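Practice problem 4.
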């Protein structure tokens, strides 16, 4: 039996199977490669898209960086300009006249801002434009620009800043023609009265455009110039007024000094006249009083009662007249600084007790109670004791006279010092003084018009004498009073030699 065909068939089947596997493998490999290629192509497209996005982002970053750099340069320029403008404004604000204002504006300011042409003009006293600062123009050209500017009606009424960005076409072309600058800022210098000039800032032709920051800086500078000019003019006006006032004050002071000199001369002559007359009157009065006393004593024979009564009146009136003459003499001597004062440190308590003992009979007769409100903080005063006792006697005597029976009179000393001076007072519960007459109390021979003064005679010199004595101690005296309630006289006296001497020096310095 021949077995060759089955073997061949088997071999053929194996061959076909292998061939099929190879074909399948080749087909599978081809399909896998296509899928790989497609997948890789998709990844390539994705990478390309990402790359394009990154490229766009890189371009955006570059553009943003350039813009930020440009913005930073602009901000740096503006900041430097503001700093320079602040320094210039501070210097201008210290100027006291218009010329000095423009001297404070440094050309470097505009160099920092990048301007190549600057022209500042303001009206003068004749209301004509005058060049105040010129950078980048010849003087002749600057003068020509002012003439052209004044002839341009659209520019004469300038109220707001003009630039290439906000200027009407015709106006822009005219400004470029006049100022010969392609890029410009034209800002008005204004005051309360209106526009008084302008500030022009520009670049030459083919220069970069100006920014909003440039416009703001020039506008601020123009405003500052206007404010500084207004302040300088106001200062000049005030200064001239002050000088005029000083001249008037000096003239008036001279007139017052002349008048005061005349018053002092009249006062001196009055004091001399009073002294002379008083001396002349004292001699016959002494004789009259002496003869009256002799007659009353009956040394030259018996005198009838009626005659003795009249002689007593002569004697009494002579005493009153002698007292008046003595007061006049004392006032005249104190006013003319001819009264010798013997200053020393005295205890206030001792002086008050002496005066109280002297006037005790008068107070007892009316049932008046005397109170002493003396403080221990101020015990001494540096005075002429005899003269100050006369002040107490006059003030206390008036208080007794104008206080009703059973009333109260008080002598007081304040516990506080007035610049080293003791503050003393004499108060009463009397009839008081009308407000209209208080200012007249220290006038010579003035007496308050009341019932008591009508019945009791007086000279009207007691308070004048008291005032002069206090003034001789460089103190002061004043009065407070309410009608129907009472009166308080206050006066100050030095509490120490040091305070007395300091007050004298102070008054000398004040007079000088």
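Answer key:
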């Amino acid at each position: 039996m021949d077995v060759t065909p089955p073997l061949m068939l088997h071999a053929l089947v194996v061959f076909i199977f292998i061939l099929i596997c190879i074909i399948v493998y080749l087909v599978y490999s081809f399909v896998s490669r296509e899928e790989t290629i497609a997948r890789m192509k998709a990844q390539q497209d994705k990478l390309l898209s990402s790359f394009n996005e990154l490229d766009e982002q890189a371009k955006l970053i570059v553009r943003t960086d350039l813009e930020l750099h440009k913005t930073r340069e602009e901000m740096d320029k503006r900041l430097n300009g503001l700093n320079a403008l602040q320094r210039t404004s501070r210097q201008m604000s210290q100027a006291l006249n218009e010329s000095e204002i423009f001297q404070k504006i440094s050309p470097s300011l505009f160099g920092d801002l990048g301007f190549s042409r600057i022209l500042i003009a303001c009206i003068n006293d004749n209301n004509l434009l005058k060049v105040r600062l010129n950078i980048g123009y010849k003087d002749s050209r600057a003068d020509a620009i002012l003439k052209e500017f004044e002839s341009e009606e659209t520019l004469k009424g300038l109220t707001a800043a003009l630039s290439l960005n906000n200027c009407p076409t015709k106006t822009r072309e005219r400004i470029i023609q006049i100022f010969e600058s392609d890029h410009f800022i034209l800002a008005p210098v204004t005051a309360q009265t209106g526009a008084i000039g302008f500030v022009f800032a520009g670049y030459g032709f083919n220069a970069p455009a100006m920014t909003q920051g440039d416009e703001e800086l020039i506008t601020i500078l123009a405003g500052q110039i206007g404010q500084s000019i207004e302040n300088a003019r106001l200062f000049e006006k005030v200064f001239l007024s002050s000088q005029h006032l000083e001249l008037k004050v000096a003239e008036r002071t001279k007139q017052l000094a002349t008048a005061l000199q005349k018053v002092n001369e009249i006062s001196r002559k009055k004091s001399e006249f009073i002294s002379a007359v008083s001396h002349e009157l004292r001699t016959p009065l002494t004789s009259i009083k002496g003869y009256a006393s002799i007659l009353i004593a009956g040394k030259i024979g018996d005198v009838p009662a009626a005659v003795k009564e009249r002689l007593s009146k002569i004697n009494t009136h002579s005493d009153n007249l002698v007292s008046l003459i003595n007061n006049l003499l004392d006032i005249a001597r104190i006013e003319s600084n001819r009264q010798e004062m013997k200053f020393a440190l005295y205890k206030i308590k001792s002086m008050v007790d002496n005066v109280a003992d002297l006037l005790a009979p008068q107070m007892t007769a009316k049932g008046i109670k005397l109170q002493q409100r003396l403080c221990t903080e101020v015990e001494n005063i540096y005075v002429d004791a005899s003269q100050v006792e006369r002040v107490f006697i006059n003030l206390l005597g008036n208080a007794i006279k104008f206080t009703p029976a059973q009333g109260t009179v008080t002598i007081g000393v304040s516990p506080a010092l007035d610049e080293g001076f003791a503050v003393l007072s004499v108060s009463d519960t009397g009839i008081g003084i009308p407000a209209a007459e208080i200012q007249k109390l220290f006038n010579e021979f003035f007496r308050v018009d009341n019932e008591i003064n009508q019945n009791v005679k007086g000279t009207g010199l007691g308070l004048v004498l008291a005032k002069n004595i206090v003034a001789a101690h460089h103190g002061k005296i004043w009065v407070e009073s309410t009608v129907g309630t009472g009166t308080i006289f206050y006066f100050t006296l030095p509490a120490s030699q040091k305070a007395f001497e300091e007050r004298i020096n102070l008054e000398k310095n004040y007079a000088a």
